[in-house]
Give the backbone structure.
Amino acid sequence: MGRWFWVFAFAWGWSSSVALAGNEDEVLVGDVAAVTGGAVTATVMDGSSLYYNPAGLMGGSDNTLNVSANAYGYRRYRVPGFLQADNGEQGENTFSEIIVVPSALAYTRTINDRVRIGVGVFQTRVQNFDLRASLTIPQADARTVDWEFALEASTTVYQGALGIGWQPTDRFRFGATLGVYYESLSASFLFSGGVSDDEFRSDSFVTSVSVASITTIGMRASVGMQWDAHENFVVGLSVQSPVVALATDFVTTDVIHDSGDGTTLPLYATGDGSDLSSEFGLYIPARIRLGVAIRGDWGWVSLDGDYVHALTTADLGVDRNAIWNLRAGAFVNVSPLLSIGGGLFTDRGTGEEAADFTAGSAHFYGGTIGARLGNVRRLDQSEDARRLLFRTTIALRYAYGDGTVGGILVASEPPVTGEGRLTARPRPLTAHEVALHLGSSLQF
C-alpha cells in the first residue's frame, strides 16, 4: 500500500496545479478584444495584434502604446460531492479565486508607409484558487472517521512577442512574430484521513503533504493576414505555431505517513525532487484563427472561429484533446471619441477525462460589454506629432462554466488505509466568472 500511495501523492500534487487549465482565452488580451469577446482576427489594429493576428500591425499609421489590465476578476466554482464516502455521505464544496491581471503592455512604431514593428508582453492565463473539503463520519463505537483536504494552486502564463507588419498593396496586410512563452505553476496540498476517539487516539490514519512547482520556458512563432476583400468586408487569418519547450524546471517536496492496514508495517517517508531539463518538446499545440468582419465608418461587426489540435507529449506531461471556439462581436463609433461594443464567446476546455484526482476541464460560455473613450491633445507644429490621442477602455465580462473534475471517494469505516480505500470518481463542476477590464492607450 505504501508504494501505491506514494505514487498517488506525487501524481496528485502534480495534477492539482493543472486541474482546470487548458482554456485558451481565460484572459482577453487588449482593449478592443476585451470589449468584443475576442472577435478581432479580421479587425485588430493595436498592440494586441502581436497576439491575435500580426497583420493588424498595419491597421493604423500612428505609433501606439497600449497598457491594459483585468483590474479585478472573480471566479466561483461548485463541485457537489468532491469528497464523498463509500456509504454515500458527502459534502457540497464551493471554492473561489480572486485575480488581478496586468494583461497587456505593447508598443508599435511606424517605419514607413509599408512597414511597422511592435513589441509586447501579455499575460494570457491566471489561476489562483484555494479548495478545502472535510468529512466526518460517526462510527458505532463512538469513534469517528475524519477526512480533510486542502489545496492551494496558482498558474501564470506570460507571452512576449516581437513582430513586423508589411502591407504590399492597399488590400493586403501581412505580419509575423517571434515570441517567448513562460509558464509558472505551483501547488501545495494536504490530504489526511483517520479514525479517532474523543481523546484523538488513532490506530488507522494516513497523511500526505506535497509542495510542487514547475517552470517552463519555450518559444513560438505566428503569421497572419488581413484581406480587404471588399470595401466593407475584411477577412483575417492567423496561425500560431506550437510552443516548443526549451527548458523545464520541476521541484517537489513530499511527506507521507501511513499507519498501515493491520497487515503491513507503518510507513513514514519524505522526498525532495528537482529536475532541470533542456529537452525540446511540443508543449502547447498550434492554433488557427479565421475571422470575417463587415466594416464601415460606423464601426464593425465580426465573427471569429479557431481550432487547436490535439497534442500528446509524454515527457512533458501533455495530453490535450482538440478544441474549437467561436466568437462574435461588434464595435460601434458613437462619436469620434466614443465607441461602445459587446461580444459573445466560447472558451472550451481540453475535455480532459476526470479519471485522476482533481484532473478535469470545463467549457466556458459568456459575453462582454464595454466602451472606449478618447481625449485629444493638440501639439505645437514644431513637434514631430501633431496630436496625442489618449484612450481609456472599460469592459465587463461574464462567463458560465460547466465540466467535470476528479473527486475523491474515501472509506467510511476503519481501516482508512489499504488498496481500494481511496479512488477517483468524476464529479460535476460549475463555475461563474466576472471580470472588470481597464485599459489605456496612447497614439502619437
